[in-house]
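// run 5 | inverse folding | seed 20
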């Protein structure tokens, strides 16, 4: 699948990479990782994350944020 085929708002990782690097499509030519916008080629090969992978990613993200808030 290519970045161009992905719908805005969907989560993905680059083909061949682990889900440790999760991105979200923001527009036709930008994605974000950890809130930082990155330009991306429409032909870039990506893999859309499954619902299970998205839940795991969001749970991990929430846990990390909770740990940061508990330190303060």
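// decoded
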């Amino acid at each position: 699948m290519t970045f161009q085929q992905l719908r805005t708002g969907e989560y993905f990782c680059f083909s061949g990479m682990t889900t440790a690097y999760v991105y979200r499509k923001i527009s036709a030519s930008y994605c974000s990782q950890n809130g930082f916008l990155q330009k991306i080629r429409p032909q870039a090969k990506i893999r859309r994350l499954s619902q299970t992978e998205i839940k795991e990613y969001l749970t991990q993200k929430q846990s990390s944020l909770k740990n940061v808030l508990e330190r303060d």
